[in-house]
Design goal:
114 residues, AhpD-like, mainly alpha
Length: 114
């Protein structure tokens, strides 16, 4: 079962971003500047950057980011196994965040009971 035709989605999204850039060019230019900033230092290779980007895309629940960084990770030479491992980190981070916020929620409950 496929959830989405990711290639078509990515293509349509890029077209809409192009439309948006005509309405607010500085917003898109600013975004592209931040996306390219990490490449200038050279401390991480492209594959590593894309694996991180894909994991973050999962944690932020951004389908557009997933579609783009999945393609860019594959293009950078990431294997399915490497991608799965990076996604495992995203799963762990989401579970960790849920644990931390569960403790915070209990703290709020305890204060509400006083």
């Amino acid at each position: 079962m496929k959830f989405l035709d990711w290639k078509s989605y990515r293509s349509a999204l890029m077209a809409r971003i192009n439309d948006y850039s005509k309405l607010s060019p500085d917003s898109v230019t600013g975004y592209l500047t931040t996306m390219g900033a990490g490449t200038k230092t050279g401390h991480l290779d492209e594959k590593t950057r894309q694996l991180i980007s894909l994991a973050v895309a999962v944690t932020t629940r951004c389908d557009g980011c997933i579609s783009d960084h999945a393609q860019l990770a594959v293009d950078a030479g990431a294997s399915k196994e490497q991608i799965a491992e990076a996604l495992g980190v995203a799963i762990a981070m989401n579970a960790g965040a849920a644990l931390v916020y569960s403790v915070r929620a209990l703290d709020a409950v305890e204060q509400a009971q006083k």
